[in-house]
Fold:
Amino acid sequence: MVRKQHRHHLALTLTLGMLVPGAVNAEGQDNLPLYKMMHSLEFVQDSVVAGDSSAGEMQRFLLATIDERLRNADKSVFDDGRNVDAALIYAMSGGNPETLEYLMSRDVNGNFDNRVADVLRKYLNGKGLLVVNTLADIAKEYRDKPIGPYLSLVAGNVMSGKNAKAALKLYDWARLMAPGTIIEESALRRSLALCADAGMVPTGLDYAQRYTRRFLHSPYASQFADLFVQLVVDHDSDIKQQDIIDILSFMDPPRQREIYLRMARRAAIAGKSDLAALAAGRAQAIPTTDGGDAFGALANFYGGVAGISTPELKSAINDVDQMPAGELNARDRALRDAAKAVAQEIMRTPDPASLGQGNVPNLSNQQNTEHDAAVTNQAGGQSPATAGVEQGATPSAAPAPEGGRQEADSSFNAFVTTSRSKLDAIDGLLKQESH
Structure:
């Protein structure tokens, strides 16, 4: 821990030296080793996820500065393996992908591991799935090296689209090798996303608790909140109320209220009225420092939306109506309109005509059929058309079908033929899509 604090202190001093000319007298910006510049970038990025909003501008400055140094560096600079690692870490830390291509094209001394460079180039160009297994193997090989945590994180990103459990193991290695850093923050957040999608509830809750204890002030915490709400709402039957309360207890009241409100809204849309009511009630119970009741009104509104589908319909409609449309954003105004439309349909008095049984017209064909059936019964089971034939009469002696039935048969055959051709055409399209 002391070594880490010293490293961060040194990195901050070097960063200030680059930002304020003359602050570093022993080593000017042009003579500063690349690996020390990367330490500065790592420190700044860790500060960003720790909640230092002022570090964002410094991060952009350092990325641009390091990019320029890498492109202008003499090839002999990369005889030092620490500078090679710095270049690779830069590429995996939001740097310019084309710079790695440039460095590889000039690597006549073989300072870069071609395997690492190749998989990174494919990853940065969106073709990581082509080398996913190779990337995972290389990450394991370099696990104890400075680039190890970064390679594990990158390999986890690629593996997540193929094997969620294998990706979680890579993310675990990444965060365990780099605790308290932007790598751990990213690994925890992406692990929670995988658990939410795959329904791995206990594991997801564990990641969520770790995140709330370590990275509440990260600029990416809002994304974490959405993922946590997704996990809870999609799998509410597998989650205890106390689990939610315990995880959110690490947050300050405003953040707790925000997540409970998001939960109430998503649960209301999903038709999970009990969870929506619970979340809305928890949001309302959190006191506000300014004495206003805006959040309570919003929680009441979400609870009302959820109650539209319950026996407490009238009370729910009242809660929805009490929220002025002008105080809602566009998405919630649409939600309010939809809830009111559903409520109106539920409350609408049925049309008396719709309660009666419909009358089917008595077609001429139906009359003929019924007449034939009656004659058949009277003749001992033979219809006029078949009786003559069975008695040895010639086909011409049989009575001709009536015109109405002939037309009906013709129309029916045409309908079947047309329908069958349409079905064949649809089957053909489906077969084309499947190939």
About this structure: The two ends are 57 Å apart (CA to CA).
